[in-house]
Amino acid sequence: MIRPTRARLTLATAVLAGTGLLAYGGLRGTLTYYRTPAEVRADPEARHATTRLAGAVVPGSVRHEGAQTVFRLAAGGEQITVRQHGAPPETFREGQDAVVEGVLGADGVFRSERLLVRHGNEYRPAGPTPPADRSGAIAGPRAAG
Amino acid sequence: MGWLAAGLTGGAVPAGLLLAPADAVQGGAQRLMYLHVPAAWTAYLAFGAVLVGGAGYLRTGDLRWDRCARVAAEIGVALTAITIAVGALWGRAVWGTWWAWDPRLVSTALLLIVYIGQLALRDAVAEAGRHRDPAGPDAHRAARWAALAGIAGFALVPVVHFSVVWWRSLHQPATVLAPHRPPIDALMAAALLLSLAAVTSTAFWVFLRRLAAIEESADAAAPGRPGSATDGPPVVDVAPGTGIPPVVGTPAAANLPRTAGAASTVVAGGR
User: Fold this and answer.
1) With contacts defined as CB-CB under 8 Å, which chain A residues touch B27?
2) What average pLDDT score do residues B81-104 get?
3) pLDDT at B244 over 80
4) Is the distance from CB of B227 to CB of B73 less than 8 angstroms?
5) Interface TM-score (ipTM) > 0.90
6) How many angstroms from the chain centroid is the CA of residue B62?
7) How high is the pLDDT of residue A57?
8) CB B51 within 8 Å of CB B90
């Protein structure tokens, strides 16, 4: 028979280990909130399980096809075409970063169910001469729908 | 202090809403920054005060330190809840979502839960005792547990702050507190600093008022006891300077922390 203090210690260790495992499992998707196009392409899991892909919306790549929005996300010199179901947020702009949640199809097109816009930590007023890298931002948000 | 806080708030509101220009990318929603960021910074400050108050209590065994730490924890919890609520509005407007399982958001929620837990732990330990005496052995036991939890909880503050640097996140990294400061419009920065002063001074004013109320109720319950507020510095005197009579120490005042904690939980849960 083990002494009560030892039993308590064992129980505490087990609870702590269990909590740690659960926390690690739960936070894996949080600590790496998104992955780059190269990482998504290299991971066979991304073709079955939902992942988050992030990159800059390639200027000129945005097309609206009915209720879907098709565009390319680029990061680190690689691009992935994204087919987004549902309307993107109003802040969705070419040249801005976006995060999409979905599955990479066999045809290499990422089918996204959810689109989030990422914004930088620079704050400036909307001037008459916007910076060159954001000139695409003035072109208008998106078609309705 | 109350007038200073009111004056700064009176200046910060028009500065943030009218004077500062709307952001080129985010539009008017970026103005939520003038509440979100100061609330977050002041919450860091409040949790820092919990750390100092807890350490002070453990060193000296003086319950006045503990009362400071308790009030600071309450304010920190309220401000963290405000940060999350306002951040959710900002996120909805700009990211397109109220919430994301992003390291900054998750760690901030964890921070909120830990300090709600710290307040609950203090309450539970105090309630478990048989001596309902604000300066008795149960008060010291509650203070010791609260100090340990408050000090340990502070480890989360750097995790929250650097979460956007250490891990990939949806949340943008820091601007003003960044090592290489990215551009921020001068008027926007001025509005941000003014609202920081407003939020910090308001929080400090609430801190003093609440502390005065707690000190009075401790005094009323245990007059002349060693370790009670009677032998402490006249912190209570601050409240009359605000022009508002201090809350009279009654048994009802002792119930305030639970109400405050519950209110913040509702704010956090009701997002």
Assistant:
1) 91
2) 93
3) no
4) no
5) no
6) 22
7) 93
8) no
Rounded to the nearest 10°, the torsion over CA A47, A49, A54, A57 is 50
8 A C-beta contact, residue B71 and residue B226: no
Interval A50-105: pLDDT, tens? 899 999 999 999 998 888 999 999 998 899 999 999 888 888 988 889 999 999 99
For residues B245-251, give the mean pLDDT.
Answer: 41
pLDDT at site A87: 85
Q: How large is the greatest C-alpha to C-alpha distance in chain A, in angstroms?
A: 81
Contact A92, A57 (CB under 8 A): yes
Q: Which of A31, A123, A113, A130 is nearest to B94 (CA)?
A: A123
Closest to B214 in 3D by CA, of B76, B74, B113, B118: B74
pLDDT (0 to 100) of residue B222: 64
Q: Which of A92, A67, A102 is nearest to A80 (CA)?
A: A102
Residues 6+ apart with CB under 8 A from B69: B49, B50, B52, B53, B54, B56, B57, B146, B147, B150
Closest CA to A55 of A98, A107, A110, A87: A98
Confidence of residue B17 (pLDDT cuts 50, 70, 90): confident
Q: What are phi and psi of A43, to 5 degrees?
A: -100, 115
The partner residue sitting opposite B103, judged by closest CB among A30, A92, A127, is A30
- In whole angstroms, what is the distance from residue A137 CA to residue A90 CA? 11
Nearest to A117 among B21, B27, B94 (CB): B94
Work out how many CB contacts closer than 8 A connect A with B: 100
Q: What is the mean pLDDT of residues B101-116?
A: 93
Q: Which of B204, B196, B207 is nearest to B38 (CA)?
A: B196
DSSP track, B144-190: HHHHHHHHHHTTHHHHHHHHHHHSB-SS---STTSSSPPPB-HHHHH
